[in-house]
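Input.
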Amino acid sequence: MKTKLTNRPVEQVIGAIQALDLDPIKLKLMDLEEGQGWSREYADAMELAYKRFLTLLVIHPDETIAPSKDVDRFWHGHILDTLKYAEDCQNVFGNFLHHFPYFGMRGEEDAKNLAAAAGNMKRLYQQEFGSAQDHGAAWRGTPTIAEGMALCGAAVQVRDAALCGAAVQVRGVALCGAAVQVKDSALCGAAIQVKDSALCGAAIQVKDSALCGAAIQVNNSARTAGVVAHAA
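Output.
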């Protein structure tokens, strides 16, 4: 993405980037089916990171940089609103900002170039904004539907299950410090492994049964730490 984006004054372009209305893009990215299932908090964070990415393109036109995966997803979402993206590019840069989707896919050398560009992005982000960029691998406060994915500090939905403040992996997965609902069951403050059924420090309702402050293994029928159960 090494390019001279605009002939406009840098301060003017940065101001226009900050003024971009990206609420429609966030709305779709927050949708569980049509978008990424992001929370409002995470979508706001990615909006900020996306605007900072555009800013870096402007203030470091001679550097080749590559955004994190979720910032790139935000960019894709912006591009998909074709009319708005074209208007925003014209208003901000005075021309169209193109996206090249094959960077890093064209062989070993290209992959190395992508890694170098990602390193440049991280370095410049830290230099200009005083913090590490928020990579897509860190799903913080995110509502998500996922299989085989690790999600830390996330609000998660898994087949109509609500899991709040959880570190979650789905299918053979660990859920720590979670407020959880699974098929109308409520599990609060739980460390959980589904299939192995290990639930620690949990306030739990399973088929109208309440289990509070419990360390539980369902398959092995082990229950400790002051369980109170009310069967249906």
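The longest strand covers residues 150-157.
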